[in-house]
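Let us walk through a complete example step by step. Step one is to write down the protein sequence. Step two is to encode the small molecule, zinc ion, as a SMILES string so that its atoms and bonds are unambiguous. Step three, shown after the inputs, is the structure prediction itself.
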Amino acid sequence: MKTKYNLPPKVIFCKECVMTNQRPSSIPEFFHTKNRAGAHYLQIDENGVCDACKHNKIKNKINWNKREKELLELLAKHRKSNGEYDCLVPGSGGKDSAYQAHILKYKYKMNPLLVTWPPILYTEYGLKNFNNWINVGGFDSVVVRPNGRVMKLLTKLSIENLLHPFQTFFFGQKNVAPKIAAKFNIKLVFYGENEAEYGNPIAENVSSIRKTSYFLTKNFNKLYLAGIKIKDLIKNYDLKLNDLKIFLPESEKEFLKKKIQIHYLGYYLRWVPQEAYYYAVENTGFKPRPFRTQGTFSKYNSIDDKIDDLHYYTTYIKYGLGRASYDASQEIRNGHMNRKEAVTLVKKYDGEFPDIYFDEIMQYLEIKKSNFFKLCDQFRSPHLWIKKGKKWFLKNLIS
Ligand SMILES: [Zn+2]
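Step three: the predicted structure of the complex.
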C-alpha cells in the first residue's frame, strides 16, 4: 500500500515503550517538504526494540562522574571573570531550560546569557514561568521577536502545506542561539537534551556537539520555509530576503570562522525530566499548568505555547502518534511507568482534540475551522487510517 511521507508501510510497535516505527527522525526543518522525500523513521530491531530504548540502556551504563569531569574541563576553558558572558542558554523558562541555566550559573559558576525565541501564542502559564525564570532565577536575557506579520504568514503556510503548526517555532529554537552567540561573541552554547536520542539512529548520539546541519547552510537558495522554496516565497508573497532571514540558518562560512561550540548539557549530566521539574519549581519559581494538557496525561511538559497542543494533534494525524505516546514512552524509559500503564494512557489520551485554544489559534491565523479539518483529512496516510461512516479510525491499535 502506498504511504505518505516515505513512511514504512507496516506499522511496528516497540516492545518496551509505546513508540512505533512511524516516529519521524529529526531532519533539518529547512529541508522539510510536503512529501518528506528521503525522510527516516525510528528504527526497531529484529527483537522488537527501538533505537530510543536501546540508547536509554546505553545511557544507564554511562559513567556520569567521568562525564561531569569532562564538563568541568570544558567550563574551565570558557569561564570568564571579567563580567562578560561566557555561555549562552537558549530556552523558554520551561523546566529543562530553567534547570540548565540555573545549574550552570549557580553550581558551576558560569556567567550565562539566556536567549528566548518566544512561543507563537503564549499561554498565561508559559509567560509567568518565563518571567520567573528571569526574575526569580536571576539572569540576564535576550528575547528575539520576529516580525509578527511574517511569523503569522509562515505559520499559516506551514499548516496549509505541511500540516505543521509548530514549524516557525522550531526554526527560531534551532537558529536563534547560534546567531546571538555570534553577535555577543560567546563561544559556548548549551542546549539541554539531544532530541536525537528519542528517534534518530544511535550513532548520532555519541557526541556532545550539536550537528551543524541543523543550523548552518552553504546555500540559501536550496532552503524551504513552510515547504516553499525561499525564492518562491519572496516572489509569491511580496517578501524580501530580510523578512525571512531571522527564520533561516546561519551561513556556514561566516559561522565557522567564529569557532563557536554548541553542546548538549544532557551529554554531560544525567537528565531526568521529572527531576528537572522539581529543580525548576524549587529554584526558578516554575509552576505546572493547573490542568492536564489535552492529548496527554502530563501538566508540566512544554506548556508555554497554545499551538504546541495542536502540533501534537497533527503528529497523530500524520504518523498515528499523539502526545501521550511521546510522553508515556519517556516515562517508561525513565522508570516511572510500566508498559501496561503506558498503553492505557495512550488509549485514553492520544488524539484527544485540543479544543481549549483551538478557536483562538484559528482566529489568529485566519484559517476557517472547517478548512483545518479538511486539511487534516488530506494529510492522513491510507496505511494508517480508515474511514467508517463519518469517522476516522487508526488501523493499528496499540496493545
Ligand atoms: Zn522503544
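Step four is interpretation. Residues 386 and 393 are 5 Å apart (CA to CA).
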